[in-house]
């Protein structure tokens, strides 16, 4: 059974130092994808825009600047409010978004209670997947010559 931790919030899309517009967004964390956070932006079109990046990047970005490349996150203050800035860069363009640090931190704390840092691998289901794979392979060993037909043996070192 997988757990989902979601939070609806309004981000500010920064157009200039003096102007931003509100963008409704949903933060989503799933225990079956424990290293990632998913952010969906509802930009007034039929299809929302989604980004996926490392949860660790957002956790660290609440406290200090981090990231390079497509996603960068850092804390800041504006008019006495604590904010988290998220810069996104894609071939289609760039966006700078601001979110309430309290809202993002509260949501992150919920994700960290569900899957503490360092425990993500235990939620990937690798043990079950490997067990299933080995169970399938054990049936192949019953055939003469192993799992491959006699004329399709793998090359040495393959």
Structure notes:
By secondary structure, the chain is an alpha+beta fold. Helix content is 23%, strand content 40%. It has three helices and seven strands; from the N terminus they run ββββαβββαα. It has a seven-stranded antiparallel sheet with strand order 4-3-2-1-7-6-5, sandwiched between helices. A hairpin with a 2-residue loop joins β5 (71-78) and β6 (81-90). It starts with a strand and ends in an 18-residue tail after the last helix. The model has no long low-confidence stretch (mean pLDDT 85).
Helix content: 10-25%
Main pleated-sheet profile = 7 strands, antiparallel
Rg, alpha carbons: 22 Å
**Mean residue pLDDT:** 85
Unreliable runs, pLDDT <50, ≥5 residues?
none
Distance between the termini: 37 Å
Shape: elongated
The total of beta strands comes to 7
The number of helical segments is 3
- Strand coverage percent: 35-45%
Q: Look at the helices and sheets and give the structural class.
A: alpha+beta
Strand arrangement across the biggest beta sheet? 4-3-2-1-7-6-5
One letter per element, helices H and strands E, the order comes to: EEEEHEEEHH
Please give a quick description of this structure.
Helices cover 23% and strands 40% of the residues.
Provide keyphrases for this structure.
single chain, 158 residues, alpha+beta, 7-stranded antiparallel beta sheet, 3 helices
Give the helix/strand layout:
Blueprint: E1 4-16, E2 19-30, E3 36-41, E4 49-54, H1 55-61, E5 71-78, E6 81-90, E7 93-100, H2 101-114, H3 126-140
Antiparallel strand pairs: 1-2, 1-7, 2-3, 3-4, 5-6, 6-7
């Amino acid at each position: 059974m997988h757990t989902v931790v979601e939070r609806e919030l309004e981000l500010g899309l920064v157009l200039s130092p003096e102007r931003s517009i509100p963008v409704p967004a949903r933060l989503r964390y799933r225990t079956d994808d424990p290293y990632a956070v998913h952010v969906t932006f509802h930009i007034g079109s039929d299809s929302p825009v989604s980004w996926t990046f490392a949860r660790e990047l957002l956790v660290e970005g609440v406290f200090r600047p981090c990231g390079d490349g497509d996603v960068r996150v850092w804390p800041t203050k504006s008019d006495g409010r604590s904010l988290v800035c998220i810069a996104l860069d894609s071939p289609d363009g760039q966006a700078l978004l601001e979110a309430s640090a309290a809202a993002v931190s509260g949501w992150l704390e919920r994700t960290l209670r569900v899957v503490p840092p360092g425990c993500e691998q235990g939620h990937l289901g690798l043990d079950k997947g490997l067990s299933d794979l080995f169970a399938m392979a054990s049936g192949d060993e019953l055939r003469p010559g192993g799992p491959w037909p006699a004329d399709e043996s793998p090359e040495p070192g393959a």
